[in-house]
Amino acid sequence: MAYGDRKSERVDFERGVHVYIMGIDGTWRRECMMIDVSQTGARLRIEGPVEGLDLKEFFLLLSSTGLAFRRCQMVRMDGDQIGVRFLARDKATKKASKRQPAGEVV
Fold first, then answer.
1. Residue 56 gets which letter from DSSP?
2. Do 82 and 35 touch, CB atoms closer than 8 A?
3. Is 88 left (phi over 0), alpha (psi -120 to 50) or beta?
4. Which residues are paired to 58 by β-bridges?
């Protein structure tokens, strides 16, 4: 499966970054290694079985406490690796950031 057609430039992690994926409803969680990442998505190596998991929409937890996360959707699967697309944030958050004057730090 080709991972070459990219919309955004990727950052590769030589050893991978330890992350988790978790169901939107919180009923499941799996350990993963993030192989690469961009502004629009990432490639993950899943540890453990993925059968029965709802990968249509889930959270990518970037910290063990879950304070840093992205909402994702699986776009491809190749063995134990999946490609994910980051889903848009809440529209209200986008509108608020657009209204913020340039150069102002929040």
1. S
2. no
3. beta
4. 23, 72
Query: SS3 breakdown of the chain: % helix, strand, coil, rounded to 5?
Result: 10, 45, 45
Q: Is 22 helix (H, G, I), strand (E, B) or coil?
A: strand
| Span 27-85, pLDDT tens digits | 999 999 999 999 999 999 999 888 888 899 999 999 888 899 999 999 999 999 999 99
- From residue 92, alpha-carbon distances to 95, 96, 98, 99 in Å are 5, 6, 10, 11
Strand pairing partners for 45? Answer: 33, 81
**How far apart are the C-alpha atoms of 18 and 20, rounded to whole Å?**
7
Distance CA 37, CA 34 (A): 7
Handedness of CA 26, 1, 19, 72 (dihedral sign): negative
In this structure, the number of other CB atoms found within 10 A of the CB of residue 4 comes to 4
CB 73 within 8 A of CB 84: yes
